[in-house]
# Entry
Amino acid sequence: MYRSLTLAGLSATLALTACSGSGTSPKSTPTQNLSSNVLQLGVGTANIYGDTGAGVTGLNVAVTYRQGKGGLSPGDSGVAVSGPTLTIPNTFTAPAYATGDSSSATVYGGPAPSEEGTSQISFTSQTGSALSSFGTSGGAFGLGIEPFNFNNEGGVPYTYVPYQVPLFDPNFAGDLVNEGGSSFIAYGYPPAFPAAGSSSPAGGYSEGLDVFADTTPVTGTYSLSVSVPVKPTFTVTKTATIASAALLPPFVQQLPSLDANNDGGATFPITFPAGVTEAYVQIYDLGPTTGVSCNGSTAAAPTSYTIEVAASGTATLPPTLGPGGTPSICTVTLNTATNGGATNGDQFAVELVGFDYPWYEASYPNSNGNPAPAIVGANGQSDVTISSAITYEQVAGAKILKSFRAKQSLKRHISGHFKR
# Structure
């Protein structure tokens, strides 16, 4: 799934950051190895669900922490275990989410109670249990801050599932209304990303997105410190600046079209908001509301796709990216043939993520071997604009799609079992 994970794990085993089996006595690490790692930080604004008319303003944090030219695997994650501390020029005021997960992390719902109202969110030491935003699982990796820290029991990541977008999202606490019901797990899929291989137990490539909802971006200096649990502790710090707190405009969806020849393909008209230089089209085939999908998709096990676009125009979903080369999205005609009687076409949810910086180029495998890919745009920031999720469906007897906003958070559909 992630070269940044698999080779980071190898590096940890060989030299970089491995801890002993007990987790209480980290092995010493040659200082020159860690010193050759490269930490990068970009910060910017986040316009979250601005197309709804009731959007959320947030903070976007772009991070890479990679092995440098002197590392065992240049361009891959610098370490397998680390602790990030993010300091902002104002305070974190999102409602505290007091209940941590199994790694003592609260980042899905808000800052830890001890962090609310302060300028810092941080981590929990590998031997600790106090609540913090990132807990013991969140670390800085080759692409983003993610819950991929190797744990002390078996030497594997706490999880292979990347963070949701956005973080600090009350939806995680069961609120299906206030945030628009559009949060998603930040995976990238074909055709933009390679199909997952045998090293991908969770499904896709991590997109490394760290977008914090309800965190107001202000002008000033932001700082990220990354601590590595070796003896003596190694810490590296990077700063970045927001010069303008103006949001990118909302990213508004236009009605997509299914291929008229019922081959399973689709096209998506895309108009970039001012300032956006590239975008992801995230697509989730949820299967039909009645009958069986021609490609096997269901709401519980969707088939997912990502299209990367570099300019306004038309994004194209190829026709046979479904499991085993089946149709990508099943139409009324395809599902009717599968079921032996009239059924609806597959429902599919679409969400747009626009960037003003080259995040796709910085992603894996596009940046394999690169210790320091560019992660800020021409304005020196890393700004994003994210649409709400809209679900589309072709109803039996109709040739056009109908649309409606998702009534549930997408992560309730896609955070469990994946076809990819």
Q: What stands out?
A: The radius of gyration is 21 Å. Residues 34 and 229 are 11 Å apart (CA to CA).
